[in-house]
Amino acid sequence: xxxxxxxxxxxxxxxxxxxxxxxxxxxxxxxxxxxxxxxxxxxxxxxxxxxxxxxxxxxxxxxxxxxxxxxxxxxxxxxxxxxxxxxxxxxxxxxxxxxxxxxxxxxxxxxxxxxxxxxxxxxxxxxxxxxxxxxxxxxxxxxxxxxxxxxxxxxxxxxxxxxxxxxxxxxxxxxxxxxxxxxxxxxxxxxxxxxxxxxxxxxxxxxxxxxxxxxxxxxxxxxxxxxxxxxxxxxxxxxxxxxxxxxxxxxxxxxxxxxxxxxxxxxxxxxxxxxxxxxxxxxxxxxxxxxxxxxxxxxxxxxxxxxxxxxxxxxxxxxxxxxxxxxxxxxxxxxxxxxxxxxxxxxxxxxxxxxxxxxxxxxxxxxxxxxxxxxxxxxxxxxxxxxxxxxxxxxxxxxxxxxxxxxxxxxxxxxxxxxxxxxxxxxxxxxxxxxxxxxxxxxxxxxxxxxxxxxxxxxxxxxxxxxxxx
Length: 470
Prior knowledge:
The strands form six sheets. The protein has a nine-stranded mixed β-sheet, with no helix packed on it. It has one helix at 84-89, and strands at 5-10, 15-23, 27-38, 41-48, 60-63, 70-78, 95-101, 107-114, 119-121, 124-126, 129-132, 137-139, 144-147, 159-166, 170-181, 183-193, 199-210, 216-225, 257-262, 265-276, 280-293, 295-301, 321-332, 346-353, 359-367, 375-397, 402-413, 419-426, 430-436, 441-444, 447-454, 458-469. By secondary structure, it is mainly beta. The N and C termini lie far apart (79 Å).
């Protein structure tokens, strides 16, 4: 084998294509193909224009042209970027000159030795300390700074540097893959309910947010939805992006993404390519569905964490407490209901047109990943005219681990029409109903529901006695 050495610089202009898989946990897998000319023997390759948020331990390189002909002997990720502060920090102990103009208009040259590592605040270098040739010390001088040479080790952009041993010389189509942070996606849903509040039109957007420090031009895009574990501290960053409102009624159309089950997650593949630019928020339509059946419910639920206004569970007793009656929308994510695609987690914003045809915002909710044929529930706000009140009438200890409570729940409807309310009571330990003024449904082993109808401008009171076994 020839022992010659070859130095190569590869930049974005040599790119032959990207493949990008983005996870909704603020990271992505980047795969890039580039054409690189390699000589037989040892090659030193500088690979520029990569992500500034790369995980250097995840990098791999292979040749698609001649597999198994490239051996990586050394790999470096260089990210000490060239800027005024880094140049001066690496020039401590070296001679520099400062050119400045005095108040009388005369140009003055100060020449001396840099004694410290100055700080950079925005675009200004502060805290400069120089020893002049006559021994004087000058603090934080102003003016243009000149150096005799550029310090070693600085790069103009993040770069990979390989020492490769090549057994087959020539043009190689290489594929470089790595993990990068600071790029993520989320789903944003717009739901417009009809006048009778029985149907809803849904449009979903994929919102991409790229802060990785690199642009991925004309990339094949795939998205992973699911809770993928990474063995590191999370570095999630809040993303603020508003999805556009649908203008007029949307017709149902095929999704731009093909969805498939992948391992225990879901994979969404964009049909066609797209460019994901650095420092850009991009939105792509995920799905559009019309005439989706929806059910609006008013729920008074004292134990639900997301809207627990007073913190008392049924067995805890306490004085009279006032609570909110919550507005909840429910829809079945099924093909029969004009949906049926696994819905990635994201924010649902709900709107309704007023009597003048103007869309008004009703509320929003964050939903988790929702498989097909499951029911999605959105808590979007609290009723203005329907209020609740919960009172413990009696709390009696009848044993070391047993108590009996009598509770009263009052719901008042101040609307001009009757309304249905679902009262939910939750128990943290074993329980037994001794008596109840109203019928109820067992939702599960720890939850019961009282469905009631309240006439206009009236009140309904529910009382029940329960035995709690701790």
